[in-house]
Fold this protein.
Amino acid sequence: MQILGNKSLKIKYLNPSTVFIATGPPEGLLTEDLEASSIALTVQIVDTVTGAPVHRQVHKASHALVSC
C-alpha cells in the first residue's frame, strides 16, 4: 500500500476475491454500420464477496473483440 500526494491510497495487490469483466458489442454486429462513438468496451473489476464494483472504465470507439 502506498499513500499518494492527494492522500488517497494506492493498493499494490487486489483482493483475491475479485473478478475482471470485459463487455463490448455483441459478436456478429457490423461495427462498420455504426457510429464510432456508439461502440464502447467496458471493463470492470468486481468484488465477488460484496458484489461491489472496485473499478469501472469505459473505452469509447473501441474496435477490438473481447475474447478469452
Q: What stands out?
A: Strands lie at 2-3, 9-10, 18-23, 40-47, 53-60. Residues 14-60 form one domain.
